[in-house]
Structures are given as C-alpha cells and as structure tokens.
Design brief:
It is a single chain. The chain has 4 helices and 6 strands, in the order H-H-E-E-H-E-E-E-H-E. By secondary structure, it is of the alpha+beta class. It has one domain. The strands form 2 sheets. Strands 5-3-4-6 form a 4-stranded mixed beta sheet. Strands 1-2 form a two-stranded antiparallel ribbon. A hairpin with a 4-residue loop joins strand 3 and strand 4. It is globular and about 25 Å long. About 11% of the residues have low confidence.
Length: 98
C-alpha cells in the first residue's frame, strides 16, 4: 500500500515538474566530488568537459549510454553529461551495450 502511494506521489511530481523529466534546461545536481551538469545538447556538454567523454544519462535509472549506442540521446528522460562526473555521482554504464 505504501509502495502504491509513493509511486503515485513520485509520478505526480514528475508530471508537475517537466524540467526534472527532460533535458530542456541546464541543471546542476550536487555530487560528492563536485557537481553533475545535466546539459540539453551534446555541444554544450562537450564545451563543459572538453577533455572527457560525453555520455547520455537516463536520469530515471542513473544509467548512461555512450555515443553510438542504441539509447544515446533517445531515452524519455535524460541529459548529456561528462562521463567522469557521472561516475563520481554514482551513475553507471549500461551493462548490455545498448
């Protein structure tokens, strides 16, 4: 019962706050080793981290996809981020290579 309530509350929060569910704006998320910049374009991410690889982070699952993979830039909720920042934030690479 509590799980259903929690799911309903989180779903409502996502519907009311589209900037959380999409990469339509730049957003900074606190991380233990700095900050994780959620960027809406690949070019902006590359400018933010010129010496690092840009990956697509699925913000709902905390799994990132590298360029050339099936879901790179294509999940419903996500943003472009620097790979090192994503790793520091506790996000992980996809395990199935998609």
């Amino acid at each position: 019962m509590f799980r259903r309530f929690l799911t309903a509350v989180l779903s409502a929060a996502l519907l009311l706050s589209p900037t959380i569910a999409t990469a339509s704006s730049h957003k900074t998320v606190p991380v233990s080793a700095g900050t994780l910049q959620l960027l809406s374009s690949e070019a902006a991410a590359q400018a933010h981290c010129p010496r690092d690889e840009v990956v697509w982070l699925n913000t709902r699952t905390s799994i990132y996809h590298e360029k050339g993979m099936r879901w790179y830039g294509r999940t419903k909720s996500g943003a472009y981020v620097c790979k090192k920042e994503a790793d520091a934030a506790g996000d992980r690479d996809t395990r199935n290579g998609q």
